[in-house]
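Slide 14.
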Amino acid sequence: LIMYGFVKAILYTGQLKGWEFHFTDCLFFGSLMSATDPVTVLAIFHELHVDTDLYTLLFGESVLNDAVAIVLTYSISIYSPKENPNVFDAAAFFQSVGNFLGIFAGSFAMGSSYAVVTALISFHLTKFTKLCEFPMLETGLFFLLSWSAFLSAEAAGLTGIVAVLFCGVTQAHYTYNNLSPDSKMRTKQLFEFMNFLAENVIFCYMGLALFTFENHIFNPLFIFGAFVAVFVARACNIYPLSFLLNLGRKQKIPRNFQHMMMFSGLRGAIAFALAIRDTESQPKQMMFTTTLLIVFFTVWVFGGGTTPMLTWLQIRVGIDPDEDLKAEAASQSASNLDKNTSKAESAWLFRIWYGFDHKY
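Slide 15: predicted structure.
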């Protein structure tokens, strides 16, 4: 909505004469820009051992954000009323909403299913065969089945990245624990190395794209509008949601955590990847150029300013997560909370999952 206001201002000043720039283009830009990617911030958090709650809040938000942004961008790009693709049509709108929910649910189901299959295969093979004596084969099976989740989702017209995300979440919970000790270590090292390599490759590619892309369109007013929209939308996201969550949370999200989450709204690889997929029209080329500039600015300025910001907001660092959990458990037992009470007070989703694990 903010970007549409700026586009109207640009049209009024006559900078976009003869351009077809519609509200659907602004929706597309908004959806790809909503993919926050605080990789830099989380890496610094990990090194400094920042408060576990803050790390978890930021990590969880960014992961789910990426998944939603990918599916939402796709849903908007295939929004097509029969008469005019840039006019609101109730049937096409509900079809887009249906596409969004269907693709998201399908990708979630496929990723989770592959993870459960991997867990069962690794469990039964380890139990009934001597697979644990071949950690290389074990890691290979783990990797190939994870990749199969991505390929199957793409082949089925779903989103591979979202399928892999939920596959990873489920595998961390089930499959990883069924691997032999050697394979656990090898798998962890393999994925850490691939993660490090992928991050470096994508940022090198971004730098290259800034200088080698032939159709850059730099529009100062659009770029300024994008920065304003990003910060305003981030504030409208973090503070009201934190307030609503604090109404029901026993352990509140403190104000300094909220400020740090606001500061950590970096844009990165996902926004770049979504923007570069379609650069055929002039509005899309202008969006791509603006996305690149926002990614570089947020990574350099906010990524570089993470440590001073932590100091200024007086957020705890140098915390051992295991010791923190022990201290929390000790304080709970000290206040005479029995197991049932603490379980009842935890998140409802966690309670359902805990009950499922306990039974099956």
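Speaker note: Residues 135 and 357 are 27 Å apart (CA to CA).
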